[in-house]
Design brief:
This protein has about 200 residues and is of the alpha/beta class. The chain has one domain (about 5-190): 3-Layer(aba) Sandwich (Rossmann fold). It is built from eight helices and seven strands, in the order αααβαβαβαβαβαββ. It has helices at about 5-10, 10-15, 20-30, 50-55, 70-80, 95-100, 120-130, 150-160, and strands at about 40-45, 65-70, 85-90, 105-110, 135-145, 165-170, 180-190. It has a seven-stranded mixed β-sheet, with helices on both faces. Helix 7 packs parallel to helix 8. It starts with a helix and ends in a 12-residue tail after the last strand.
């Protein structure tokens, strides 16, 4: 399946012209202590370029919930991990995290295309993420360098800073196509209360 084809079909849904590189995947997961996590959520799993890197760092009894809105990508991930009981693939919107993710979540790794989504959707997804994370939980995402100074990217950075106690911007990952940098955030603030999700 071509990620470029999905991008051309729906750029707001896919948001990328190529899968994330192994170098970006390593940068996305560095410093998150994934080996200590019990529950990790990946938002916008796409073709699974980062999913495998997450899984290789998890403890044997840990769980990964991969959330993907694109039905074709979600089916592909479901088929790939059909025999892995530690992985659950959810075809749905990250805005609805609280309805299908048991919480608290230890770490959220996001590959969502923040700069092509409306501001209000950015806010709703960040609220949902902060709402399911544990008080010391970590959040990692990336943005493309060429869009760093666009209004959507700047709004996203502001929204992220307002929801976490600590936010850091990593160095540019030049080998990625396009080059990208990582936002890493820890300890959500102003968390919305939510009832624990029932098991699926």
């Amino acid at each position: 399946m071509s990620i470029m084809r999905e991008f051309l079909r729906s750029p707001r849904l896919t948001g990328a012209i190529a899968p994330s590189s192994a170098t970006l995947a390593q940068a996305m997961t560095a410093g998150l202590d994934l080996h200590r996590a019990d529950l990790v959520v990946e938002l916008g799993s796409g073709t699974g370029a980062i999913t495998g890197t997450i899984l290789r760092q998890l403890a044997p009894n840990a769980r990964l919930i991969a959330v993907e809105l694109n039905p074709a990508f979600a089916r592909r991930l479901t088929d790939r991990y059909a025999d892995d009981s530690s992985v659950e693939v959810v075809q749905g919107s990250a805005e609805d995290l609280a309805t299908f993710v048991p919480h608290p979540v230890d770490v959220i790794v996001s590959g969502l295309p923040w700069t092509v989504m409306p501001h209000e959707r950015q806010r709703r997804i960040l609220d949902a993420a902060a709402g399911v994370l544990s008080p010391s939980g970590g959040f990692s995402t990336f943005a493309y360098m060429h869009a760093a100074w666009t209004p959507p990217a700047r709004r996203f950075a502001t929204e992220l800073t307002g929801r976490f106690s600590t936010v850091e911007r990593g160095r540019v990952v030049w080998p990625n196509l396009p080059p990208a940098y990582v936002h890493r955030a820890v300890a959500p603030v102003h968390r919305k209360s939510a009832e624990p999700a029932h098991g699926r």
